Amino acid sequence: NPSHLEAVNTVVVGKTRAKQFYENDVNRRKHMAVLLHGDGAFSGQGIVYETLDMSQLPEYTIGGTIHIVVNNQVAFTTDPKYSRSSPYCTDVAKCVDAPVFHVNGDDVEAVARVMELATEWRQEFGRDVVVDIVCYRKYGHNEIDEPMFTQPLMYKKIKTHRSAHEQYCDKLVAEGTLTREEIAQMHEEILRKLDQDFEDSKDYRPKPRDWLAAHWKGFKGPDQLSRIRETGVKMDILKQVGMSATAIPESFTPHRVVKRVYDARRKMIETGEGLDWAMAEALAFGTLLNEGNHVRLSGQDVERGTFSHRHALIHDQNTGERFVPLRNVYGDSRPNEFFTVSNSSLSEFGVLGFELGYSLENPNSLVMWEAQFGDFANSAQIIIDQFISSGEAKWLRQTGVTLLLPHGYDGQGPEHSSCRMERYLQMSDEPPDKIPADMTLDTRTQIQEANWQICNVTTPANYFHLLRRQVHRDFRKPLIVISPKNLLRHPKCVSPLSDFDDEEASQTEQGIRFKRLIMDKSAKSRNKVDPGVEPDAKRVVFCTGKVYYELDAEREAMGAEDDVKIVRIEQLSPFPWDLVDRELRRYPNAEVVWCQEEPMNMGAWSHVSPRFQTLFKEPHINRRLDALRYAGRAPAASTATGYGAVHAEEQVGLVKEALMD
Fold first, then answer.
1. In the 8-state DSSP scheme, what is residue 387?
2. Does residue 355 contact residue 297 with C-beta atoms inside 8 Å?
3. How many CB atoms lie within 10 A of CB 549?
4. Of 642, 611, 604, 638, residue with least CA distance to 625
């Protein structure tokens, strides 16, 4: 548990649920979570309630958790009457009718008996249970803390109080169970073992395999080369999966709008044209399932999708029956849970922790959490900071957990526009002033050496390849997807089915794997290494995300395709140094512009700007360090304006600023 008390709770619960799934523990009696709490934290930290609230939800239950509260009757320096409003620190557990056993910590055998009772309760009833061990903290909060400053009366009593260990020794001797000599011999043996372990620890060198479960055998650490794999799928499999994932039984009566959605998706597969975001996602899920990989997506309203685009779980309008079309891909050959899409409780902190824990158990899975809107991830920042961005560096633990954070400036105001991508970019550990020595396809280790990946994707096909890339590699990294809102139905944000297959010759621009950068649609050479030179281009605009479509529409209206080129950076971190270098070489005489929708102190500007400066220093590029011009909103305190008219005016202005002199 990190210093953010109780943050680990749902991580443990999520990992337990994963163990139950992979071991087919359907009765949830073979795997159990035990959580250790402090009294102040149990009553004070909201994540405790979130954990309890999830305990009986169908897609989150683990058949009960045993909660052990070490009740020191003081929270660091704060007395109970100042740290909670309820009589007991465990009263929050009443919300789920969990039994609470209060037991005297000085009575060793009573504590043991209560633990037996709690375990039997959990095994019999499959519900949470709490053991409140009422005891005391002998010394201060840490080695240098002086508790007499704040609890003088309590600590005068503690100094004269005989320890539970001493009291139990006296009891055993009085009963004739042990002699003083036997107790002394036990003490000596235990101290000898502790001393030996302390000496051994001085030479200990951690190894990744010491920290990984059996499912992770064969996966590689940052210092071992993992080759980049293709993520395209054979056309016949794509069609087969697509038809299965769009099939609804005749006896099932979906909402008429949902039926139209599924009919349209089926037509996309049949014609091979116009695949939208939701269809691309369904194909990514379906092909991974077809290959034997577990897929799990949870978050608020993810079954339908916040923007009514996914409809992964549909409802019969007459009976209320629920149906998940993607489960057609595997039918009865796998458990129902093999593809899980589940609306969560109205929680971010707890649910993201759960999915992180779930992802740690087995790498052969795609585990995702989707925020209702991207900025709702604010409430889960502790999980992101303490575990996801830094977990591999701190604990040698890899995770492929994927966060989908809806983002985009559509005039919806400051609470629904930005996922705060700048925060994730700031936490990326890639240096901005050092270009990796080897960026070739076969030997590139850039992502392996980074702490995570941050992508802002603009085509359905690239989203498909991005999700599949998470699984088709022999290492795992967290993935932050700056996911779209209005692109979900944008008429130009579609891909042909040929962009999803494994035949490079059939591609228009996609290729057979994820594209970290998409070159201008009019680029004369599609060569991936040597682009040739287009000396007549006057301006090259680099951007990321949905602003590309607005830039492209305005450029088309201006008739400026020959003069202005637009390049999309799809993977912001790790930075695609080699591909940005390629585009700068392609347009040696063009003014270089960065365009973004976000205010200047937000978005990707502060991330890309120093990296462009590093590239400008390269002899074969040789541009002024201030050669990158900014086109976007001015610095602001709020992520976006609350006035639709002001938003529209700002949006038009930044697009024109990027394209015009």
1. I
2. no
3. 20
4. 611
pLDDT, mean of residues 539-546: 97
- Cα(313)–Cα(241) distance, integer angstroms: 17
pLDDT tens digits, one per residue of 6-25: 999 999 999 999 999 999 99
Distance CA 302, CA 295 (A): 14
Strands (E) across 463-563 are located at 479-483, 517-518, 539-543
Please give the single-letter amino acid code of residue 516.
Answer: R
- Integer distance in angstroms from the first to the last C-alpha of the chain? 54
Separation CA 619–CA 389 (nearest Å): 34
How does pLDDT run across 129-183, given as a tens digit for each residue? 999 999 999 998 888 899 999 999 999 999 999 999 999 999 999 999 999 999 9
CA distance 536 to 533: 9
> If you ran DSSP here, which 8-state letter would residue 385 be given?
I
Q: How confident is the model at residue 209 (pLDDT cuts 50, 70, 90)?
A: low
Residue 324 CA to residue 315 CA, distance in Å, equals 9
- Which has more pLDDT, 93 or 530? 93
**Residue 308, number of CB atoms within 10 A of its CB:** 14
Instruction: Please name the residues in contact with 438: beta carbons below 8 A apart, sequence gap of 6 or more.
Output: 444, 445
R_g of the chain, CA atoms, integer Å? 29
Please state whether 215 falls in left (phi above 0), alpha (psi between -120 and 50) or beta.
alpha
- 258: helix, strand or coil: helix
